[in-house]
């Protein structure tokens, strides 16, 4: 088969562009940080409530200013659906979902986690101001999605 010189150039250009494109996609899709915010810790998605730490959802004090909040996300809410901590506390959140993908989003903070079944999703935040913080689900999860919320009360 005889290829015209320009055909060859275009072929090389086309294949080259494809390689660059796929490399960019590959690197950005699999680069560090693009895994669940869980440090890859997993939990048995079928038996969430039988698996530590989700057999005891709730708030636990770790030290003077640090708390650990173990929360289960579900259609359509969180358990527990309210926690209370004093101002200045750092709360380490660990969540999983007992059904579908949800999120755990605290507006105006950097906490915005996708909550994936089978994974322990972790994030933390230091609450410097007192007040009531609303937590929302921003992953569409079904008919009651817009009602899925919880409250973090930060006391003075
Ligand atoms: Cu849970 Cu939307």
- Show unreliable segments: none
Q: Which of globular, elongated, flat, extended, rod-shaped describes the shape? A: elongated
In percent, how much strand structure appears in the residues?
Answer: 35-45%
User: Whole-number average pLDDT?
Assistant: 91
Bound molecules: dinuclear copper ion
Helix/sheet category: alpha+beta
What's the total helix number? 1
CATH topology of the largest domain, anyone?
A: Immunoglobulin-like
- The domain tally reads 2
Give a count of the beta strands, DSSP E runs of length 2 or more: 10
**What separation lies between the terminal Cα atoms?**
81 Å
How much helix is in the residues? 10-25%
CATH architecture of the largest domain: Sandwich
CATH class of the largest domain: Mainly Beta
- Output the helix-strand order: HEEEEEEEEEE
Give a quick account of the main beta sheet: strands, pairing sense, barrel closure: 5 strands, mixed
For the CA atoms, what is the radius of gyration? 22 Å
Q: Which homologous superfamily in CATH is the superfamily of the largest domain?
A: Cupredoxins -  blue copper proteins
């Amino acid at each position: 088969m005889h290829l015209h010189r320009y055909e060859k150039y275009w072929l090389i250009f086309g294949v080259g562009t494809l390689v660059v494109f796929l490399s960019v996609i590959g690197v950005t899709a699999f680069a560090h940080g693009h895994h669940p915010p869980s440090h890859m810790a997993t939990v048995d998605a079928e038996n969430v409530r039988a698996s530590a730490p989700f057999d005891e959802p709730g708030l636990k004090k770790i030290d003077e200013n640090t708390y650990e909040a173990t929360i289960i996300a579900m259609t359509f809410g969180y358990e527990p659906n309210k926690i209370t901590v004093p101002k200045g506390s750092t709360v380490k959140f660990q969540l999983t979902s007992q059904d579908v993908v949800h999120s755990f989003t605290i507006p105006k903070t950097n906490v915005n986690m996708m909550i994936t079944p089978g994974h322990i999703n972790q994030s933390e935040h230091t609450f410097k101001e007192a007040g009531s913080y609303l937590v929302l689900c921003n992953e569409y999860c079904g008919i009651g999605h817009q009602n899925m919320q919880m409250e973090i009360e930060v006391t003075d």
